[in-house]
Amino acid sequence: MEQNNKKGYDCSLYTTLQNMPNQPNAQLEVNFDGLIGPSHNFSGLSPGNHASAENKDKESNPQEACLQGLNKARKLAQLGVPQAVLPIQERPSLEYLYALGYKGRVEDILQEVDASTLPNIYAVSSMWTANAATVAPSTDTRDGQMHIVPANLHYQFHRSTEAQATMATLEKIFGGMARVHNPLPGHVRFGDEGAANHMRFTTGQGEPGVHLFAYGTDGITNKEGKLVNGPQINPARQTRVASEALARLLDIPTERVVFAQTSPRAIDAGVFHNDVISTNNESTWLLHEQAYQDTPRVISDVQQALGSDLFVSMAKTEDLSLQDAVESYVFNSQIVTLPGGEMILIAPLEAQLNPRSRAFIEKTLSDPKCPISRVEYVNLQGSMKNGGGPACLRLRVAMSDVEKQQVRGRVFLDDALYGDLTQWVKRNYRETMLPKDLRDPNLVTESLRAFSELQKILQLA
Ligand code: SUG
Question: What is the pLDDT of residues 331-341, one digit of tens each?
């Protein structure tokens, strides 16, 4: 990093933000990446998420995983893409331990907690900030202000513990300029997993967006209490009624909203979020032909609502099976716009290693109409082993210069913050961990200390 600076490498996010056009309406998209917590482990908590099940009980390396995430964020900042971070949450979750009636010293409580609850109150899944919330920037809303709805993550206990803390964090950081709503009611009918099931299309940065909400089931239950019209094997975490509520809360004009059902076959093949099978930036869209129930209709609905052509690269099943897509996470790539307007693809290493995924990327990039000029592969294996790729780790927030000034906390990633965070990780994180280590009394101290140190570093205390 320092060497790069000496060579005059343009690595300063600060430069990008300073160069933001000085007009109230000009907007840039900022990626808010989640930091990976010190109790990162493989507990196999997520049914329908193949990586989580396959890596259950394997050894993790929390330090390496967190540094991999930070390096991805720094790479984007170096490329000139506005980049910020969101904090880890308090783990173990004292709030949940007390809510479950435990009293006394946390170290003692952790010996008592049953084996099925323990990994839930220690889970660091808030790292996947694509699941933190759904955001509509001020350019897109009827009332002209940014709206944010934190996800209730109702479907799984470990993820549902994030919702209230996420809301508090988002309020702290964005409350000065955005309306931060409550999460949707915590019921299976309103299961909401945030931006991972949402896409925003525009004709360019700063232009108003068209919002696609993907869902896995209608949210209606039958006489047996089972959700109807959804996958047969794996759970559908996002419901249509939840997505409809989001569109209302975000205050997006109806004609700029599209709803799309994720294909039940895709969910049954391991596509537990839309961002495992579909990715976009502005009007560039990479997806699998089996992404939605009726993929051609979804594309034409978006195109019509946008009133402009899209660049669509759609993988065919014969070239790239759903299994390949899920194993390689090729559609969990980020497409980002660089300061000069060039787009690049940030893809997981696993997509480079899978010949069919790599061929899909190469074919897409070789299309003369494709606005993406090149691909960069990133190593995020720690996160990937729990089912989270490059796009899962970031929440996109498009904001104007004026709004940017109102973001609270020291969250924009410049060289100094990157340095402080790296030191913080090296000071507090272990290099090996197994789920059984969650009973280690020392982990309580380490984990709570890391949380409070970070609050100070990010000036969120
Ligand atoms: O919800 N994995 C997360 C992965 C989330 C990925 N996010 C997006 N696709 N946007 C999940 O399934 C596994 C935790 C464990 O097994 O220990 C987990 O929660």
Answer: 999 999 999 99
